[in-house]
Amino acid sequence: MDDVRKAGQRMDLDRIRIGSAPDSWGVWFPEDPQQTPWQRFLDEVSEAGYQWIELGPYGYLPTDPALLGDELTRRRLTVSAGTVFTALHRGPAVWDATWEHVSRVAALTSAMGAAHLVVIPEFWRDSVTGEQTDPEHLSPTQFRELTAGMERLGREVRERYGLTIVVHPHADTHLATERDVTRFLDATDPDAVSLCLDTGHYAYCGGDSVRLIKTYGERIGYLHLKQVDPAILADVRAQGTPFGPAVASGVMCEPPHGLPDLPPVLAAAQGLGVDLFAIVEQDMYPCPPDAPLPIATRTRRYLRSCGA
């Protein structure tokens, strides 16, 4: 733990903006009867003490800017980012379909006054069934397509919508491990591509968030705060469990009961000297409808105790 915390002092994390996301309410899809209705999510995320939220999967929250704006204003909520999945390693053949989806999400994100678009690479296996849909590792040609596609996406999104893309390393994708992430950062233009560091996914895949922030701090444009249960993770790795069943088994856990320890991560992020969103995103699909609010409330209280 950092020296400030060792001394028993509360660090003032004045550059960190804490928010939450539909994911922390068990939302993975635009529509699913197992998920929390969007009105309840908005009511409860506000009740839990958060000001900032992400849009979640496109179509979960209202896509009409006027309606969504009214719903957010009524609850004193503000959007920090939208989210898209992409498969840009497949090359120019997927660009038009990718852009059609990205442009819808980017337009709504921009209309809500946000400045970031979280971009997640496509999974290489189905998150529920485990069926392999792509090679687990990219060929040199696919890697070049991925980096070139992300750079193009970053420039197009900024030019047309005024948003910065933040690419999100994610379990069961081609951008997951420390080697994947550092290789990707070294191969992409910092002016076009920033990183969304998800502390839970990075730990899930063996990465050290504090080391990444200290080594590539100028590329970190956004944070997702999340922890993994090390005992469940060990079993997930031993069994080769796909990400969906791993989440259902509780691999992503409530802070501060997992890894990584968040105070050093937040201290390292504060040390960058820039304003950063840090969005709580506890994967918990599916979950009982009454489970998210108490967890979200305790998590917000915990992060306040850390100075955020």
Automatic annotation (TrEMBL):
<dbReference type="InterPro" id="IPR013022">
    <property type="entry name" value="Xyl_isomerase-like_TIM-brl"/>
</dbReference>
<dbReference type="Pfam" id="PF01261">
    <property type="entry name" value="AP_endonuc_2"/>
</dbReference>
<dbReference type="InterPro" id="IPR050312">
    <property type="entry name" value="IolE/XylAMocC-like"/>
</dbReference>
<protein>
    <recommendedName>
        <fullName>Xylose isomerase-like TIM barrel domain-containing protein</fullName>
    </recommendedName>
</protein>
<feature type="domain" description="Xylose isomerase-like TIM barrel">
    <location>
        <begin position="42"/>
        <end position="292"/>
    </location>
</feature>
<dbReference type="InterPro" id="IPR036237">
    <property type="entry name" value="Xyl_isomerase-like_sf"/>
</dbReference>
